[in-house]
């Protein structure tokens, strides 16, 4: 059983380095740093690091450690919330001694010496809490609870998405018993700057909606400049169209210098295969991809129409 194997590996290694996916979200950071807190609380003498690039909008949750290449030698590497190796933040994970994958995305790219993938989990943070409940000796504390709760809240859209189960709510109930500031957490995750709020207004004014339920919004470079919003920040706005009646699938095209980022969301049709065809991947109903021209973006739109048609038949 992988939970036991993970526990044994954590016990065995003195240096543990925890990774997660690039462009982190609260679940990536919450599972990564929440696991670090659990290990550190249980084994105070072990050296446990979290690595990857900091996202300034999420450093209120946790800041990453800066470590030398030499630290990776003989280290246990744990990678949280990352379906495929291409999305692992900090490629030095390959120089570790043993690799563990803990994730809730479809296991399209199995990797690691030990792998625990549970696609029924709402979030990797939920899995880390489960690891705590099933492990023989694991200590929970306020810092860990805060991070894991943030991850669960982030990936379930505040317990709104269908991925929220009885278990999710039960774990969340147990986590809020710990003393951390939930209001501060919600402000950190959901407060947006005024320019981002105005760009949300632009999106609501300009999205297209076709008869089959496909909605498209293009955020070109001039638009991003006009609203003074970075490509990374637009990630916070993808949910904006989720409440619009009649939208079944929606796609954001976000223009960068060298590519057009594609963010896909769906209320039924499986869209991660489309994402995979365009240098991306993700969940069946929430994925991302990259294209390199507006012609290619039009191909994505065409593919999405087909996926919707197949879903409706
Ligand atoms: Mn996740």
Overview of this structure, please?
Helices cover 37% and strands 18% of the residues. The protein has 313 residues and is an alpha/beta fold. The strands form two sheets. Strands 6-7-8-9-11-10 form a six-stranded mixed sheet. Strands 2-1-3-4-5 form a five-stranded parallel sheet, with helices on one face. Helix 2 packs parallel to helix 3 (124-134). The model has no long low-confidence stretch (mean pLDDT 96). Bound molecules: manganese (II) ion. The site of manganese (II) ion has 6 residues, from loops.
Find the structural class using helix and strand composition. alpha/beta
* Main sheet: strand order: 6-7-8-9-11-10
- What is the molecular shape? globular
Mean pLDDT over all positions: 96
| Count of strand segments | 11
Model regions low in confidence, pLDDT < 50 over at least 5 residues: none
Name the helicity range.
25-40%
Into which percentage range does the β-strand content fall? Answer: 15-25%
Radius of gyration: 20 Å
The biggest sheet, with number of strands, parallel, antiparallel or mixed sense and barrel status, is: 6 strands, mixed
Distance separating the two termini = 40 Å
Offer a concise description of the structure:
Helix content is 37%, strand content 18%. By secondary structure, it is of the alpha/beta class.
Jot down its keywords:
single chain; 313 residues; alpha/beta; six-stranded mixed beta sheet; five-stranded parallel beta sheet
Question: Strands, helices and their partners?
Answer:
Blueprint: H1 2-12, E1 15-20, H2 26-42, E2 47-50, E3 76-80, E4 98-103, E5 114-117, H3 124-134, H4 142-155, H5 166-175, H6 182-190, H7 194-206, E6 208-209, E7 214-219, H8 221-227, E8 249-255, E9 260-266, H9 272-277, E10 281-282, E11 286-291, H10 294-312
Helix pairs in contact: 2-3, 2-4, 3-4
The chain binds manganese (II) ion.
Residues 27, 81, 104, 123-124, 155 line the site of manganese (II) ion.
């Amino acid at each position: 059983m992988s939970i036991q194997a993970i526990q044994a590996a954590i016990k065995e290694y003195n240096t543990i380095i925890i990774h997660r996916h690039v462009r982190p979200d609260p679940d990536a950071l919450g599972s990564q740093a929440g696991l670090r807190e659990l290990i550190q609380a249980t084994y105070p003498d072990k050296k446990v690091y979290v690595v990857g690039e900091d996202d300034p909008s999420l450093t209120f949750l946790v800041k990453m450690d800066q470590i030398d290449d030499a630290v990776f030698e003989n280290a246990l590497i744990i990678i949280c919330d990352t379906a495929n190796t291409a999305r692992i933040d900090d490629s030095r994970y390959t120089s570790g001694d043993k690799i563990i994958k803990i994730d809730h995305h479809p296991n399209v790219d199995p990797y690691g010496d030990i792998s625990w993938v549970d696609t029924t989990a709402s979030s990797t943070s939920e899995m880390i809490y489960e690891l705590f409940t099933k492990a023989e000796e694991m200590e929970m504390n306020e810092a860990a609870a805060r991070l894991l709760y943030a991850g669960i809240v982030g990936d379930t859209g505040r317990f709104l998405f269908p991925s929220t189960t009885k278990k999710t709510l039960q774990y969340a109930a147990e986590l809020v018993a710990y003393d951390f500031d939930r209001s501060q957490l919600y402000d950190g995750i959901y407060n947006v700057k005024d320019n981002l709020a105005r760009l949300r207004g632009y999106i609501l004014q300009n999205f297209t909606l076709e008869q089959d339920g496909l909605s498209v919004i293009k955020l070109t470079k001039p638009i991003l400049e006009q609203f003074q919003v970075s490509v990374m920040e637009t990630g916070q706005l993808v949910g904006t169209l989720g409440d619009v009646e009649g939208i079944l699938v929606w796609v954001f095209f976000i223009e960068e210098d060298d590519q057009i980022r594609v963010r896909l969301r769906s209320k039924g049709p499986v869209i991660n295969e489309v994402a995979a065809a365009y240098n991306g991947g993700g969940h069946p109903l929430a994925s991302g991809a990259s294209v390199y021209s507006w012609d290619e973006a039009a191909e994505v739109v065409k593919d999405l129409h087909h996926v919707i048609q197949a879903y409706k038949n």
